[in-house]
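Hi R.,

Here's the chain you asked about this morning:
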Amino acid sequence: MGSLDFIKSAEDYYCLGLWLADGYWWSSSFGLTSTNEILLSRFSKFLTKLCPDRPIRVRIDEPNKGNYKGNLINKHIFVYSRPLTKAFLGLKQNVKLDIPKKYIFPYIAGRIDGDGHVDKKYRTGIRIAYSTKEDAARDLEILYKLHDSPASLYRYHKANTWVLYFRKAFLKNILYKIARYSYKLKNL
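And the predicted structure, written out as tokens:
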């Protein structure tokens, strides 16, 4: 369960990271939720590639309408595909993802664009927030393929959140490789 056979390119691994950050699925639908049109467009192409026979659906949440309390227009793009949903949920539940070394940079770029924060003012670092320790530990294990001390993992008890902080020495060596794929890092 949870095979990466259908993930073949750098863009595919980027979208895998982006989806793992967002995790949008419902019953038999699989997709992405974002306020960023560029990320939605990239993910829409990924969905079209994986499910060319399925229409891409869009649901829009507007500020202060219904139960949505955000300030920005929030879009959900998705396809109805039980096999695709099952395959990605299998990947999400895997304790270990076997990502080839050459695709770690686009995968991490997707995670950064989905749940990461880039300190633009002081340029001191990048961090990625996770809701579970297992998810954070899995990504830390992936980063260990690149460096022996890539990041620190902290838990914030009150927020019930785990945060992976990239170490400066590690970041200095890989930033340009991740920036090739990351929307957030391209706009520094």
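The chain has two domains: 10-93, 101-186.

Let me know if you need anything else.
M.
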